[in-house]
């Protein structure tokens, strides 16, 4: 019986000691769990801050992209206007040159026509004078005979 009492007292002491150690281990586990949760909270807050910064950056880049697209459209519109203006001016110059060339051709044709008329008139005059000279000479020859 004394051995049983001794074992009971010893078992009770051992059980008591195990409970204290278990409480300490639980407290230490809880403390490290709280610390880990705090670290995770800090990391989450840090990541949230980075997320906000990155979203701001994305917003700025989107605005910049939209501005650049707007500027590109404006440049494209100006380019098209310039090309149209150039084409209109080129067409106008071409038409003016064509008109000048046609006028030149008409003038040349008229000059050629006038020249031909003058040549025919001159030839008729020459022929007429020749005929007159021939008649005068024939008259003189007839008178001399």
Automatic annotation (TrEMBL):
Region Disordered, residue ranges: 63-145
Composition bias type Basic and acidic residues, residue spans: 65-99, 108-131
Domain of life where this protein originates: Bacteria
Biased composition annotated in UniProt, kind: Low complexity: 132-145
Protein name, per record: M protein
Organism, as annotated: Streptococcus pyogenes
């Amino acid at each position: 019986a004394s051995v049983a009492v001794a074992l009971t007292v010893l078992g009770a002491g051992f059980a008591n000691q195990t409970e204290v150690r278990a409480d300490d281990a639980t407290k230490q586990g809880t403390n490290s769990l709280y610390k880990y949760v705090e670290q995770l909270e800090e990391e989450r807050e840090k990541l949230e801050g980075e997320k906000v910064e990155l979203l701001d950056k994305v917003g700025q880049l989107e605005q910049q992209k939209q501005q650049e697209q707007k500027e590109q459209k404006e440049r494209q519109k100006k380019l098209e206007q310039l090309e149209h203006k150039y084409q209109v001016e080129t067409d106008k110059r071409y038409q003016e040159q064509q008109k000048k060339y046609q006028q030149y051709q008409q003038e040349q044709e008229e000059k050629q026509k006038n020249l031909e008329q003058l040549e025919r008139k001159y030839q008729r005059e020459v022929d007429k004078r020749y005929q007159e000279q021939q008649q005068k000479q024939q008259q003189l020859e007839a008178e001399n005979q």
